[in-house]
Design a protein that fits this description.
Elements lengths: L3 H11 L3 H20 L6 H23 L12
Helix pairs in contact: 1-3, 2-3
Length: 78
């Protein structure tokens, strides 16, 4: 079962919503910068999760750019 972020990115790609993906990316990047600048607690787990989400968003942006929008939720062609 795809994660929530994978489902969100998939919908944005299918709707060709580049702006939504860009905003999602900027939000995750801000979170990563904020967490990486903090000290006093081990933030490696949430930072790792955010880095994974950024990679998923980047893949969605690539799919959108390449025009690969005809995919189902499990990645199979329609």
């Amino acid at each position: 079962m795809p994660s929530a972020i994978e489902q969100i990115v998939d919908v944005y790609v299918r709707l060709k919503n580049r702006r939504g993906l860009d905003e999602l990316m900027m939000h995750r990047q801000r979170l990563a910068v904020d967490l990486k600048s903090r000290s006093g607690y081990d933030f490696s787990l949430p930072i790792g999760q955010i880095d994974e989400e950024i990679a998923i968003i980047e893949a969605g942006l690539s799919r959108l750019k390449s025009g690969d929008i005809a995919a189902t939720d499990d990645g199979r062609p329609v």
